[in-house]
Amino acid sequence: MAVSISRRLLRCLGPSRVFGHCDSPMIMSRSFHTFDALCSSLVSRDSLFSMDSPCKAGSSFFFSRSLSTTTILTPESSGVAFPPELLATRTVVTAERTPGQYQDLVIPVTNFHNEDKGFMVLAGDVFDVPIRKDIVHRVVLWELAKRQQGVDGSQGTHSTKTISEVSGTGRKPYPQKGTGRARHGTLRGPQFRGGATKHGPKPRSHAFKLNKKVRRLGLKIALSARIAEGKLLVFDDLDIPSHKTKNVVNYVQEMENAKKLLLVDGGPINEKLKLATQNLHYVNVLPSIGLNVYSILLHDTLVMSRDAVNRIVTRMHTPINR
Prior knowledge:
Distance between the termini: 60 Å
Number of strands: 8
Number of helices: 10
Strand order of the largest sheet: 4-3-5-8-6-7
Structural class: alpha/beta
Order of helices and strands: EHHHEEEHHHEHEHEHEH
Helix content: 25-40%
Strand content: 5-15%
Largest sheet: 6 strands, mixed
Mean pLDDT: 78
């Protein structure tokens, strides 16, 4: 049980006149020289603060709930041994961690039912790299330019006809000399009505080259940004009991501030999970091999399985073939 001891109580470590007249043998000394002596005398909080205590009106301020300022004692605040039963059980607010230090991170592992499944160590060179917006911008442009590319490398359906594709005769319309008109060798040229189009659009690939180092760094930065925001969750697995969509809807509603969810599994996607999420526009599923920067930025919450994390780390640590 967490015990908050007010500054008034700390001043009670002085003369016994602060406590007033007390017939209890528990408080007989004129001065508590160490905080350990006071803690050993406090058998329980209820026995000290109950109305049946032999202490008279001098200690009545213990019952007030509107005390001015309280001080939470910690083991570091006293040089003597601190009793564990008096330690505060609430989370102690610590200074925010500075991201980008390449430090290994320990993250709790749960599941869709928010059950404790232990902890997992995330590699610092993958999940704690410095944030660089310029790298993310380059990688996103590369991914968008490369997407929707056909098997033959073509992209798009816009097309115009060249002079060899326009229908029409190939005969010279009139002699070269003697007519006084301009010289022409065909009527399918771009200057004639119904002729060809010069430098018109054609289905082509808009992809450009981007070094593998930069592509890897972009993925690391996206993962580091999500974990710095507290928006990366690690699940033990992504197994669900049935293919019903309402199961996934309930799971998402239990998550805090999860508006758009990206589920990343290690291997092929489970058929039940695929059927349960296909009608939800705010939940998407990807295998670890298909994880990309654009999809991470498109969703505000990233959920990865243990297997997916291990595969991503293995992929990031694999030497680049040159």
